[in-house]
């Protein structure tokens, strides 16, 4: 497995992170990896961890504004992943891609509501 491609003027972790986001947004990442690993596994794990942290902060009786800010912090990333799946599925086409798009939208509704 090779390292993600870095782009001109980018190096180190910042370059890999930019390459990660760019490849997903441009639809060059494989749809299966994007959906199953990035969205379902990593995205769900991030949301669960942040929700647990928010509950701990609530239990410590910290200000509600802080608790809500922590709880909703991953929402922009959730939207990014959902739209990345959508864009990649449009390029890929087929029934499987359509099902993954539907799954991504349902996942987004689930993680935002809960």
UniProtKB/TrEMBL annotation:
Keywords: Membrane, Transmembrane, Transmembrane helix. The chain crosses the membrane at residues 39-58, 64-86, 93-113. The keyword Transmembrane applies. This is Uncharacterized protein. It comes from Mesorhizobium muleiense. The lineage of its organism: Bacteria, Pseudomonadati, Pseudomonadota, Alphaproteobacteria, Hyphomicrobiales.
